[in-house]
Structure formats: structure tokens, C-alpha cells
Amino acid sequence: MARNDIRPIVKLRSTAGTGYTYVTRKNRRNDPDRLVLRKFDPIARQHVDFREER
């Protein structure tokens, strides 16, 4: 089984509308839905939700 099948690279985009993104990997078996993480957006200078973008 290939490495990218279970843990694909996903892009997390800020919901604040700044266009800032984080890049991470996720486990598709544990998180089959879209990932939502609360992280710091340096452009908005606050913690906001980052949603998985496909």
C-alpha cells in the first residue's frame, strides 16, 4: 500500500477570509470527513477555524 493512500497531504484554509493556509497530513481512516482545526492566522492576528480544502 502506498504512503499517500492512508495519510494524504491536505491544505487547511482560514475561515477569516485572509487566504492564509497551513499544509498538513491527516489519517483518512480516523478522519474521513473534512478536517477543521483552530489555529493562529497571522494576517488576522487571532485564532480562527481552518477548514480542509480539496
UniProtKB/TrEMBL annotation:
Swiss-Prot/TrEMBL keywords: Ribonucleoprotein, Ribosomal protein
Any Pfam family: Ribosomal_L33
Any one of the GO BP annotations: translation
InterPro entries: Ribosomal_bL33, Ribosomal_bL33_CS, Ribosomal_bL33_sf, Ribosomal_zn-bd
A single GO molecular function term of this UniProt record: structural constituent of ribosome
SUPFAM superfamilies linked: Zn-binding ribosomal proteins
Gene Ontology CC annotation, any one: cytosolic large ribosomal subunit
HAMAP family: Ribosomal_bL33
Family according to the record: Belongs to the bacterial ribosomal protein bL33 family.
UniProt name for this protein: Large ribosomal subunit protein bL33
Organismal lineage: Bacteria, Bacillati, Actinomycetota, Actinomycetes, Nakamurellales
